[in-house]
């Protein structure tokens, strides 16, 4: 459980009308991004032509290939400090202009992300209103697309760095929104990649949360490496496992892959969810599905079998149906 204020991420509860409006805008915006190829192929988060499965397979293949060929390899799972909450509005608008978006589109998106007034609800107490002058709200249907375009410049490192060559394909950077994997052949290459990525993120006001970043480094002799890498002033030692998109890669003289016990996690999540805070028009319903992340479990390294997936789907559906009173509505309609 989070213990520090910085560990919490606010979820914005929006009106049904705005969410519907934003969903319509997002659909059109995503079409433009994909048709114009404005988002680098390294980014698979919330994209129509990508999924968690592609990145998980890429990561697994790169590590397995290096291991089998007795070659050194470094893989690092990276975390960005308050990623969505650190988006600078003026910089985002400048990115839209750079890509040639029409002024009417820019004005519309500016009105959606700027001049917002919010309140915070904590333990039943509502704060005074304040202006949200930075960040894109988690809970807005358009935020993932906005963030993908905002962070896209980080892929510039692809042009400067070597990466890992697997079957004539270069694997260096894997992005799923703000979930990042860096892969390198050596300690020197990894440090160079971290430095380059850090510089690109700094240009747009983002930074890596070094304490949440994990390194998995394997020597040519198929042993855990003792090599150290640096993020700013922080030194990162290798660990025996890294997690990415619901999958866990563990190394104990060989690689093993697993998903992180989804059925138990889902049961615990549902047990701790307050039904009094769950409404049909609340972001809580969306939030719960994101936390549980059923698609990620289905695509994780070993995945989960179909029976477990069906069981999880039924658990969530039954909980939501009862919490928002659909059982009662159905009984009345039958009467």
TrEMBL record:
> Coiled-coil regions in this chain?
none
The record's SUPFAM superfamilies line, in alphabetical order, gives: DNA/RNA polymerases
Segments forming domain Reverse transcriptase? 1-235
The superkingdom listed in its UniProt entry is Eukaryota
**What is the name attached to this protein's record?**
Reverse transcriptase domain-containing protein
- The record lists the organism as Naegleria fowleri
